Amino acid sequence: MHRHSATGTRFATCPIDVDTSTGRRGTYSYDASNYRVPPAGVGFPRTADEVSATLAWCHTENVTVSVRGGGTSMAGNAVGEGLVLDLSRHMNGILDIDDDAHTATVQPGVVLAQLAYAVERHTDGAMTFAPDPSSKSRATVGGSVANDACGNHSVRYGRTTDHVVALDLVLADGTRATATRSGVQATDPTDASAVARAAQLTAELADLTRDHMAALRTELGRIPRQVSGYHLSHLLPENGFDVARALVGSEGTCAVVVAATVSIVDVPPSALLLILGYENVVDAARDVPDILKWSPSAVEGIDELIVDTMRARRGADSVAALPPGHAWLYVELDGNSPEQVSASADRLLTALRGNRRVLDGAVITDPVVRKGLWRVREDGAGLSSRLPLPDGGSVTSWPGWEDSAVAPENLADYLADFTELLAEHDLIGVMYGHFGAGCMHIRITFDQVTAEGRAVMTQFLDAAARLVVRHGGTLSGEHGDGRARSGLLPIMYSPEMMSAFARFKTVFDPDGLLNPGIMVSPVQPVADLALAGVPVLPWQTSFELGTPDAQPGQGFVDAVQSCIGVGRCRSHSGGVMCPSFRATGDEKDSTRGRARALQEMIRGAATVEDGWRSDDVREVLDLCLSCKACASDCPTGVDMATYKSEFFDHYYRGRRRPAAHYSLGWLPRWLVITSRTAPLVNAALKSPLRAAALKAGGLTTERDLPSFASRRALTKILARPAPAADADVVLMIDSFTKGFRPDVAGAARRVVEDAGHCAQTRTDVCCGLTWISTGQLGQAKKRLRRAAAALDDGTDRPIVVTEPSCAATMRKDLPELVPTEAAARVAKRIRSFAEQVSVQAAAGWQPAHEVPDDVVVQTHCHEYSVFGAPTQQRALKAVGVSHIHEATGCCGVAGNFGFEADHYQTSMTVAEQALAPALREHNGAPVLTDGFSCQMQVRQLTGETSTHLAQMLDPSPEPDD
Known about the structure:
Blueprint (H helix, E strand, L loop, with lengths): L4 H4 L9 E2 L2 H6 L13 E3 L4 H14 L3 E4 L14 E4 L7 E5 L4 E4 L5 H11 L4 E2 L12 H7 L6 H4 L6 E7 L5 E5 L2 E4 L5 H20 L1 H7 L23 H5 L8 E8 L1 E2 L3 E9 L2 H6 L1 H5 L5 E6 H11 L12 E9 L2 H16 L6 E5 L2 H12 L1 H4 L2 E3 L5 E3 L14 H14 L4 E6 L4 E6 L6 H20 L11 H4 L3 H4 L2 H14 L46 H6 L18 H6 L6 H14 L3 H5 L2 H6 L8 H5 L6 H12 L7 H5 L3 H18 L4 H8 L14 H7 L11 E4 L2 H6 L1 H13 L4 E4 L6 H5 L3 H15 L7 E3 L2 H14 L3 H9 E3 H10 L11 E4 L3 H6 L4 H8 L4 E4 L17 H8 L3 H7 L5 E2 L3 H11 L6 H5 L8
Parallel strand pairs: 2-4, 3-4, 21-22, 21-23, 23-24, 25-26, 25-27
Antiparallel strand pairs: 1-2, 5-6, 6-11, 7-12, 8-9, 8-11, 9-10, 13-15, 13-16, 14-15, 14-19, 17-18, 19-20
Helix pairs in contact: 7-20, 16-17, 35-37, 36-37, 38-40
């Protein structure tokens, strides 16, 4: 982003580049909490030396510093008004893995899941890094050290504290020091000033410990998840003056971690998941003490609100394996053999049935089903943010009291009392968390918009703090206190302990420059709320956006505010979202970064017209591929492709658009012309005119282009159309199929008719996809209205669309852009071709010839998002393909994106995330690409043509006429 000169001058002499643009500062004003705190600037240091030099400069210039990794803090630990340092972008190396010593040394920006994977690969699966919070796919080691994160297996492996061996630090004045299990020392023993500072720290920490020894022994370390406050009990003589572990959980207020040595653990040979169903979370919690006697590796819990949301958002299949109940426990057992673990599960279930609380149990051994069920638990924060109601409306829940913990044996009574407290304040709480460790993540329907709602929130937080303390618990069990709970610490701790905390902070950071307002001298929990003070303006949109109960003109606001910052879009593995972030590693290129820019637009616009003209939003949307993966992969259902389309529609009104918006955005219209002049156009694109023509259209000259098909070819292939009256299937031939691969149309019809159907082919309708993806919604709506009128024929015949992106447009975008009953009826009838194949196979049909045993498949992102990730796999399995190698990721072309000159390189980088490696690994296997974009990328990567599913199943590949 471009440097903003007015604020950039402040950092002109800073040792690293500091981005002070309004766009960058807006994106980094948020984490995953309730808060918005715009920083003065954002920096991306590359080395520990750069961090040291930067902090020394900040110390001299009296600039406060807040450090962040994945930005997944739910307590507001990762925002600050000074300089924000993002260590995740460059300082993310794994420096050493020592399986003999059972340690790994890493930079702070390493993502937890990547560290675990690296350790497992290095040790052939024998070892791993244990802390595994639900955010492990994007949370960093540095953030886990700062918050003392735990995770799903904390009943076995404890907190991050229990795995820290040493921390390399940069102090507030730039001094380099290393904290160990037995003290603190200069990182470089030849640095005299650092040696002197380490000696000073040692003396002052010893004095602090001696002066508060009794309080440290009686108030700290009482329960497994006591994370609130500083962990000063580690400084006690009986704990070895463990400075490293005393700093874990200090939330960036004492020093900046630039490297960490952590312990790694052995992986059990065998494990299984036992799911237990209960009437309510209190009953589930009462069984926890008995479950713990069986030494499980995990005891996690969720309530029915999360399951209902998962069912509504991702379909009944996503939770079909859960046993009956309204609350569930996930119990993972492990051991030396599958037989041993299975026997233990049977005995445990029998014992629990004797308690007469468990309704039923299910042993999950299938790894795919097991992974899917764990995702329900891991997506709890996002799934619980928008709760569907029976009347079609919804309620929104928020963090703030999402991390309290008690001793496991006290959990049931605490939850019973907490449920009453919620009712007293007329609030709903969505409950999930680490039941085995007594830690609850409860998101609550706080009203943070109105003064009255904030007053209720304040009263509730005070009462909730007193309640958890009464049950012997802690305000925070792994998320840290942050802005959300630091102000409540005096309810939990004595004045002496609060004084000791302040003294500890001063020993390390005497000028209070590191993450101010956290732990010591805190801001109040309802200060700086992101939802407070957002102006209400009439944001009229073409798409029907937001929840059904959104106020008029506020659907767009409701939609973009559905991003709560959980950051799954920052993951580098699993799912498809977000290909542009995976390509650049830049927060602004993530779904979250774009949503935050839109939220800033809504907050800062003086008028709606000014908002739609935001250059900051235009910039962050530039690399959005409009793949729609976020609509399914994001736990809160953010659909950035739709928001981009809507924004572009307004942004470019009265402005000249990029050339590609005309050349590719109007492609269906040009295809009508090329169908009549195909030989001439194809010849021109092989002549010296090619480069000039492509450049004029804003297209890259580096990508191979398809040949244009003639109208005569399509007419020949689709000869002898079936009478409409006899047809029981409508086959919609989209513009891409007509214009570039009409042979797919013929194959699709033959496959459908081979199953005994009579297909009516429709070549006269267009879904308007190219106009949608380029934000020309007036044109798109015209075509969609015509399509709805043409296809709404009074029947319920399925409409099978050969191109998956067009099928997705007809299923999802049609009713959102054309909110009529006819459009809704048509949308319900739409099937992708893969869906049709599954339906035919379920009815007993099988292809007439043998199918390949081994297949590489690139599922189109829109089909993945709208019809479900397993759509292609399900169809291929149904017709007998045994080995399916799915390139789970965006191909990189994504409609117009990969053809545009400015985006070609990003497109090819995205291809390396999944498609290109799959093609190299399974070289020689047939490649299936139902999507035209995907086909073009395979051709670019290999020089070969891939196959549509219809072509693979075609009973008579040579046309019979």
